[in-house]
Amino acid sequence: MTERNATPLRSVPEAEVSPEQAAHDAEGQELFDRIIAEDSRIEPRDWMPAAYRKTLLRQISQHAHSEIIGMQPESNWITRAPSLKRKAILIAKVQDEAGHGLYLYSAAETLGQGRDQMMEDLIAGKAKYSSIFNYPAVTWADMGAIGWLVDGAAICNQVPLCRASYGPYGRAMVRICKEESFHQRQGFEILLELSNGTPAQKKMAQDAVNRWYAPALMMFGPPDEDSPNSKQSMAWNIKRFSNDELRQRFLGMMVEQAKVLGLTLPDEDIRYNEETGKWEHGPLDWDEFKNVLKGQGPCNAQRMERRREAHAEGAWVREAAAAYAAKQAQKESAA
Ligand SMILES: [Fe+2]
Ligand SMILES: [Fe+2]
Predict the structure, then answer these.
(1) CA–CA distance, 142 with 208 (Å, rounded to integer)
(2) CA 176 to ligand 1 centroid distance, Å
(3) 279 within 8 A of 252, measured Cβ to Cβ
(4) What pLDDT is stored for residue 15 in this prediction?
(5) Quick check: 127 and 62 in contact, CB under 8 A?
(6) What is the distance in A from the centroid of ligand 1 to the CA of 333?
(7) What is the CA(54)–ligand 2 centre distance, in A?
(8) How do residues 166-198 score in pLDDT, each as one tens digit?
(9) Whether residue 294 has pLDDT greater than 90
(10) What span, in angstroms and rounded, lies between the C-alpha atoms of 20 and 140?
(11) 294 Cα to the center of ligand 1, angstroms
């Protein structure tokens, strides 16, 4: 392990850098580079390049926002779940997603940005979240397809993030991934039951898989040649595999599981390339992906409106919590 510098060193704009600060920065950079080369972890008090901090803040806050917005398509089905058991499972799953958002906001806060600011950026429409949550969940089978495909893609993406170089992010991901496995299993089980049910139920399951397949593949982000920031993220040990590598790995897993489900993936071009050892898929509509990301997806406006409403409805809770904390602090200082 590399010895850490106990004093946090902050980067300041170049014009104001004094010789002492420049020496500190050079020392900090050297230590940072060594920690990354050793594949060890950067912790909140360590010196880090401004671009590393910015990249992580963007990634972790976007991830947190995705967990929170991602509660919406499924919470919409809680009252209509077909049995008490299904209702209990779905409630547990949606609650987990809220928890994931909270772990991730906490991890992002260690990089120096307040949660209030992140939330403000989200409701002002300045912050992004995963475009997958801008698609509607139209039938009960969508709960199965979301769990199987969307949570499945999330696991593929997130398991390598457990080894991300930034300590608080990696540790949050360990806990999140354990819960995501349960999410994927419950989705698989919903589809399995529907697939073995009546012809109408099987059709509903297949229809949901048809609608979620391509958006799930696009969750890994644009193809490698259109993903300019990936290289730097990999050099910093934040990302461990490229978008395309993760997408191919996911596809291979889904092909096998679809056979067990008795459902088909709606893509005639899926094949295993013996030469490259990789799974291949048909073309994806990246224009649609970009449009949804820009706010033109089927549910963008609805999702944002609901988030703004929920934020406004929760104002009294935040006020009460702040008043309680102030009272406690006053008590402590008087003691
Ligand atoms: Fe999650
Ligand atoms: Fe999940």
Answers:
(1) 5
(2) 6
(3) yes
(4) 64
(5) yes
(6) 39
(7) 25
(8) 999 999 999 999 999 999 999 999 999 999 999
(9) no
(10) 62
(11) 22
Taking the C-alpha atoms of residue 119 and residue 294, their distance in angstroms, rounded to an integer, is: 19
What count of residues does the chain have? Answer: 335
Whole-structure pTM value: 0.90
Cα of 67 vs centre of ligand 2, distance in Å, is 8
Kindly list the distances between the CA atom of residue 194 and the CA atoms of 75, 144, 199, in Å, as whole numbers in the listed order: 20, 9, 9
- 30-69 exposure pattern, b = at least 16 Cβ within 10 A, e = fewer: ebbeebbeeeebbeeebbbeeebbebbbebbbbbbbbbbb
Q: Are 25 and 46 in contact (CB under 8 A)?
A: no
State how far Cα 251 lies from the chain centre: 19
Average pLDDT over residues 116-144: 95
Beta carbons of 46 and 5 less than 8 angstroms apart: yes
Write down the mean pLDDT value for the chain: 93
Name the closest ligand to CA 98. 1
Residue 206 confidence (pLDDT): 98
